[in-house]
Amino acid sequence: MAVREDQRPVVDLRTATGAENPPCPACGDPLFGWALLRPGEVPVRRCETCGLGLLGAAAEREEALAALARFRAERHGSAPNRASTQAWIGQSGWSALEQQRRFLLTPEAVWRLDGGPVRSRAAVAAMWQTLLNSFTFGHNVALGRLGRATATEAAKGWQRGLDLSISLLAAPLLIVIAAPLELGSALAGRGGSLELSRTPAR
Fold this sequence. Notes:
It is a single chain. By secondary structure, the chain is of the alpha+beta class. About 35% of the residues lie in helices and about 15% in strands. The chain is built from six helices and nine strands, in the order E-E-E-E-E-H-E-H-E-H-E-H-H-H-E. The chain has helices at about 60-75, 85-90, 105-115, 125-135, 140-145, 155-185; strands at about 1-5, 10, 30-35, 40-45, 55, 80, 105, 120, 195. Helix 4 (about 125-135) packs across helix 6 (about 155-185). The model has no long low-confidence stretch (mean pLDDT about 90).
């Protein structure tokens, strides 16, 4: 543990690295528990230093770089922003949490991985679904029905029926809340989507 000139101790986060807190593939500092992806209660960890989120088991830097390259190669060159307002509001209910999305990037994590330029932009539909997820048993029910996300349906029939009713009834009200909230977040640099350059800086 280092000590500053004013004698106040400075804690080195890397001393907490271990099986429960594996190293961040972007910056090397430990990942701590943040959310759970249901069903299955799959842990989602986050880095307190660069903000990167990781679904499931520990990952190497090379795996994160490969995932970032895939994001860059996509038609829109975008990725969900774990440093967004909607991620902060939603946590386990954040609409970007999906089984096939192992790495949840932030501008800081992208910079530490390959130095590429990145900026956040609004993702109103994702904010809307995140707000809806706080009222439903399932996950991403509305966007799943629209073919824009992978839905995780509730386990029981009556829950699925209730989720559909809630989505239909609450959708108009929540879009009125989601749109200005997300647009304001994007103006503040905390939009739900990261716009990635096709070519990294290094």
